[in-house]
Specification:
Layout: H1 2-5, H2 10-28, E1 31-32, H3 38-42, E2 52-54, H4 62-77, H5 94-97, H6 114-118, H7 121-132, H8 134-147, H9 152-163, H10 166-170, H11 172-194, H12 198-216, H13 221-233, H14 235-238, H15 250-274, H16 276-283, H17 300-304, H18 324-327, H19 334-340, H20 347-369, H21 373-379, H22 390-404, H23 413-437, H24 444-462, H25 466-481, E3 487-489, H26 492-495, H27 498-503, E4 513-517, H28 520-527, E5 532-533, E6 536-538, H29 543-549, H30 556-559, E7 563-569, E8 577-582, E9 585-590, H31 595-600, E10 602-608, E11 619-624, E12 628-633
Parallel strand pairs: 4-5, 4-10, 7-9
Antiparallel strand pairs: 1-3, 2-3, 6-7, 8-9, 10-12, 11-12
Helix pairs in contact: 2-7, 2-8, 4-28, 7-8, 8-9, 8-11, 9-22, 9-25, 11-12, 11-13, 12-15, 13-20, 13-22, 19-22, 20-22, 23-24, 24-25
């Protein structure tokens, strides 16, 4: 280990030490940043949210607390635990495809999941969130320190800017783990380039293999494609000093990176081939199916909206976006650095910036004007909706700004002051013009406060002040977004629900099939016990199962989709009917004693908000709770 860490600068070692201490404390006390506390309000519980320390759980984060957490806990309680096949998530190997913890060889490439195999479930969950937060933030600081020759304040400002952006905070459950793998992979490439011994080369190559594998197996191209191209654009900085450093020959370093990347790609291809049935089933769904993007959907207001995000909440956001997550963005100031790039004193250094500058300019062209379908297909950009490509603009733009802070310019201070005045005038004009084009209920004083912070950030970039930039982006990004994700302890808010305790009394070997009537939310609660629940939220549709209810295939277009599946009890003798509620939601109305439903093989029913007067000939009621009842099929 000392040999592995000898390449780290003193600031980097301090960052590493602080990270280890914070992670150890948080894992020990079961701290996490999930919005799982939203279950309390959805289940009608009054009083304090169990385990809530700071902030407020966000109901809008339903992809995390309503889908991700129940699926994850279902994995922990399947028989055996962490199985690759979990019918509650979907048929075949859907649990692998969605990226849940499993006892599979791919677990080697997912260090964010290792805690589940080492600790109990709650501490494993904490480990999982440390990768999404503490480790991600530290990795960003570490990368920017190493890229920026140890300038700690500029690196800290850049990490705050990226991590506390509205985009990363509101999409934290979706993008953070992948971004952590990408960032640490870049760090590994940097240390491979300057390693002084073959032992260091091997150890950092192993780290690169794990991170590249984790990044590749994240299987979400809308984020992966922009970040992969950004990694290529940063290679001139990541490999700086490769030819002049002591130790292994440059050819050995190049070969090491090439072999590692090839192995990681082979692992991803092997994974997709091994799980081809689940991949094919997802690709053939009606929703989401295969969506093709050609770009051309980006507007100027979308790029400018990040300037006003400190005034947004989950209930106050530009209405055209639909929700706060879709409205989130970054504070884009890289055009300022792009202009300053023309006046770098060291022309050789300018060549290193060209790939990154070209990346940002090309990405903007793609976003605003689009590209031909053939080019999009070959390059991989056909998988990237314009709104998801913001991760490339955001991270790449911040890196450009931070890297420019160590560059000497040929401009006089007078010209820089004039540049600042022109930029300030542009910001003030935007403050006046923006609300008229895109109305948001923001007080004028708040708008000018945001404008002053933007002007301070631009001044920090122009005069290369790390302290001023850190303070500006902290006030602009970190302060308003510090409560987007709550601080919580443990998972009692969901694991101690009365319905969960009741279900655990039955089917201890988890051999029966369960169905939940009256509530998709209750179906997700039953799933956390590890039972096989046929409805609720399913990542991949179980076509074989639902064709039993629809042998003529008349409703295939309805149930062949990633969806939230609700069951409602129909009058006695009523045949199963399928109703599409939304693109990702459908409902089955059926009499539980109908022959088709009996053939469906459900052994246990949970009826949320049940009616005590209703009786079933084929099921007997075995438990009654406050707002639910459990039924078991009659033998």
């Amino acid at each position: 280990m000392p040999k592995l860490l000898s390449l780290l600068s003193t600031p980097s070692r301090i960052v590493l030490a602080v990270t280890l201490v914070l992670c150890a404390l948080c894992i020990g006390f079961k701290i996490h940043f999930s919005s799982v506390g939203a279950w309390a309000s959805y289940m009608g519980r009054s009083g304090e949210v169990p385990g809530l320390i700071y902030g407020e759980p966000k109901p809008i984060r339903s992809d995390e607390w309503l889908l991700g957490v129940p699926w994850l806990l279902s994995q922990a309680h399947t028989n055996p635990s962490w199985a690759t096949n979990n019918p509650s998530v979907g048929p075949d190997t859907s649990a692998l495809l969605v990226g849940l913890p499993t006892r599979h060889w791919t677990a080697f490439f997912r260090p964010a999941h290792w805690g589940f195999y080492i600790f109990d479930v709650e501490r494993g969950f904490s480990w999982f969130w440390m990768w999404r937060t503490v480790i991600l933030f530290s990795a960003l600081v570490l990368l920017l320190i190493e890229l920026n020759s140890g300038l700690i304040m500029g690196a800290l400002a850049g990490a705050i800017w990226i991590f506390f952006s509205g985009f990363v905070q509101w999409w934290l459950a979706s993008v953070a783990e992948m971004l952590a793998y990408w960032t640490l992979a870049c760090v590994a490439v940097r240390y491979i380039s300057v390693s002084t011994s073959y032992r260091q080369l091997i150890l950092w190559s192993l780290a690169l293999l794990i991170m590249c594998g984790g990044f590749g197996l994240s299987l979400y191209p809308p984020f992966q494609v922009p970040l992969a191209y950004l990694g290529l654009a940063l290679l001139p900085f990541l490999t700086r000093g490769l030819l002049s450093s002591n130790g292994p020959r440059p050819l050995a370093r190049f070969a090491s990176v090439a072999v590692v990347v090839s192995l990681a790609m082979a692992a991803v291809v092997s994974f997709l081939l091994d799980n081809s049935e689940a991949v094919s089933a997802m690709a053939q769904t009606v929703y989401p199916g295969r969506r093709v993007s050609l770009g051309g959907e980006l507007s100027l207001w979308r790029l400018a909206s990040g300037f006003f995000e400190r005034n947004y909440t989950q209930y106050i956001f530009p209405p055209v976006a639909g929700n706060i997550s879709e409205a989130s963005s970054f504070v884009f100031l890289w055009p300022v650095s792009l202009v300053l790039l023309l006046f770098i004193k060291d022309r050789c250094e300018l060549m290193r910036f060209l790939p990154l500058a070209l990346y940002l300019v090309s990405l903007t062209f793609w976003g605003m004007f689009g590209i031909p379908e053939s080019v999009a297909a070959i390059s991989g950009w056909s998988f990237v909706p314009t709104s998801r490509a913001l991760i490339g603009w955001g991270v790449g733009g911040v890196v450009l700004c931070v890297l420019m802070m160590r560059q000497q310019l040929v401009l006089s201070k007078l010209i820089l002051v004039v540049f600042l005045l022109v930029a300030s005038a542009g910001i003030l004009w935007c403050v006046k013009a923006f609300p008229e084009r895109f109305p948001v209920a923001i007080a004028e004083a708040e708008l000018y406060y945001s404008a002053s912070l933007l002007i301070a950030s631009v001044a920090a970039l122009i005069f290369r002040s790390g302290w001023l930039l850190a303070l500006s982006v902290f006030a602009l990004c970190a302060w308003p977004h510090s409560q987007v994700n709550p601080v919580m302890r443990g998972l009692a808010v969901i694991t101690e629900e009365p319905l969960v305790s009741a279900v655990k009394r039955f089917d201890p070997n988890r051999e029966g099939r369960w169905a939940v009537f009256g509530s998709v939310v209750h179906a997700q609660l039953v799933k956390i016990t590890g039972r096989d629940v046929v409805n609720g939220s399913q990542y991949v549709p179980d076509m074989k199962a639902f064709t039993r209810l629809d042998p003529e295939g008349r409703a295939t277009e309805i149930y062949n989709r990633y969806a939230h599946i609700g069951f409602t009890i129909a009058p006695e003798g009523t045949a199963p009917t399928f109703n599409l509620i939304a693109a990702d939601t459908w409902e089955l109305k059926v009499d539980p004693c109908h022959p088709r439903f009996i053939d469906f093989g459900v052994r246990y029913l949970v009826w949320a908000n049940y009616q005590s007067s209703r009786r079933f000939e084929c099921y007997e009621r075995v438990f009654v709770g406050k707002d639910f009842a459990v039924y078991k099929v009659r033998s």
